[in-house]
Amino acid sequence: MKSFYILKLTFYLVSFLTFLLNAVERIFVFLFNKPILIHTYLVKKKLPKHKKEFLESSVLFYQKLNEKQKVYFEHRLVKFLRNYDFIERDGFKMTPEAKVLMASSYIKLTFGMRKYLTSTFNKIIVYPTSYYSLITKQYHKGEFNPGLKLIIFSWEDFLLGEVVLNDNLNLGIHEFTHALTFHGKQSKDVSARIFYRAYLEIIKFMRNPDNSTEVIESGYFRDYANTNALEFVSVIMEHFFETPEDLKQKFPKLYFKIERMLNYKKIIKR
Questions:
Q1: DSSP assignment, residue 19?
Q2: Based on the structure, what is the number of domains in the chain?
Q3: What is the three-class DSSP state of 225?
């Protein structure tokens, strides 16, 4: 009987502490627009040696992190590789290096978030080049399909986005941003709410005729950004990762909204 009361007391204590922590975090998020904790892992996962060597030599974002952040990045990369299925199409040969590169694109995008994995997709389909869609009757370089929970890439175009780092064209960042926008709309996680709140702020920013006119007449963002709000935010995100200083100079309000959206203020030195 005594053990029963101890167990009951423990349950109430844990429930109270959880409630208290959530209340404190809500206040913290309200004041600072970021979660209290981001990287909390009991056991940190590690990549096999050959994948780790590829990560170290080929992913510039990873190279810029400090040693502690690199451990966190590697852990998240392993979790991503285990959580999502990679599927080959039209003769594309999936290699461990290709998986690491695609996973790294997602991890760098979500590195400032506490809950970084999403259920808005569960498979990544990769074609060797642009592919023909039976739905749109057009050729595509990539897409996010929330109904089928798919991310689709043309490997040729994905790789080009990772190799050329200053043309503001990054297919991985673009399509993963779409997935995170849907995640932000659905999830109650604090990072998702911050992400989606900033997304709505950007939409509001562009609904102001003065702002939209300035953005369009500047010619700074490619025409595809004007397709809709989803595409506009994904294109801004490409600029944020590829030419951040340029974006910050030309459209500082948009830059700082993305920075807050991703909780990126102190992650890497620009």
A1: H
A2: 2
A3: helix
Residue 71 maps to which CATH number?
1.10.472.150
Residue ranges of alpha helices (H) inside the chain are: 2-32, 49-58, 60-63, 67-83, 96-109, 155-163, 171-186, 190-207, 209-218, 229-242, 244-250, 252-262
Q: Look at residue 60 and tell me if it is in a domain.
A: yes
**Same structural domain for residues 68 and 202?**
yes
pTM for the model stands at: 0.89
Between CA 18 and CA 212 the distance in angstroms is: 44
| CA 41/CA 78 separation, integer angstroms | 13
What are the structure tokens assigned to 250, written together? 């030309």
Taking the C-alpha atoms of residue 143 and residue 145, their distance in angstroms, rounded to an integer, is 6
Kindly state whether residues 182 and 151 are assigned to the same domain.
yes
* Cβ atoms within 10 Å, residue 47: 18
pLDDT tens figures, 208-236: 999 999 999 999 999 999 999 999 999 99
In the structure encoding, which two tokens stand for residue 195, read together? 């992400």
Same domain, 109 and 191: yes
How many angstroms separate the CA atoms of 30 and 56, rounded? 37
Q: Report yes or no on 269 lying in a domain.
A: no
Give the tokens for residue 202: 């950007």
